Amino acid sequence: MRNIFLGTAAAALFATTAAAASPMEHSIIDRAVADFTGAAIGQPGGAKLPVDRRLRLASCQSPLDLQWFGRDQRSIQVACPREGWRIYVAVDGVANHAGQVPEQYGETIVKRGENVSILVRGRGFTLTRQGSAVEDGAQGEWIRIRASGERTETMRALVIRPGQVGIDLP
């Protein structure tokens, strides 16, 4: 009886270990990048190429974290905080993200309470932090935002595109 129990427990442990050790499916990352940019692979505003199939990344059991990366935002950082990995995906035609530029200037693209990426840019660096919008805003407008964390003060940032605001330092 004891041998049957130990055998069953060992099989269950091996099955969960094998599932946890399975590699991340590249198509999931490709789909997440396409959803984030609003454009398919190879299309203007989308990823230049699919994720390199030679990469062996641990399967991400939490939602992927996607953010624009680089001074000119020519790539997207895709990270799995739980597994501790991150990769960068090159984007084609960044100036015009398909599906993300409002039809009419002045259209509200950031809503109050929406989670936003806050870019703080200076000479030779860009810092990114998550936060939330305290008020609605259109592209090019300054709105109040609150950085995620313990602090409750608000600051003002320029709406860059949907889900993204920025502050340029002198």
UniProtKB/TrEMBL annotation:
The answer to keyword Signal applying to this record is yes
Q: Which Pfam families match?
A: ChapFlgA
Occurrences of domain Flagella basal body P-ring formation protein FlgA SAF (ranges): 108-166
Name the Gene3D superfamilies on file: 2.30.30.760
| Segment forming the signal sequence | 1-20
Alphabetically list the UniProt keywords. Answer: Cell projection, Cilium, Flagellum, Signal
- Output the superkingdom of the source species: Bacteria
PANTHER family recorded: FLAGELLA BASAL BODY P-RING FORMATION PROTEIN FLGA
Question: Under which name does UniProt file this protein?
Answer: Flagella basal body P-ring formation protein FlgA
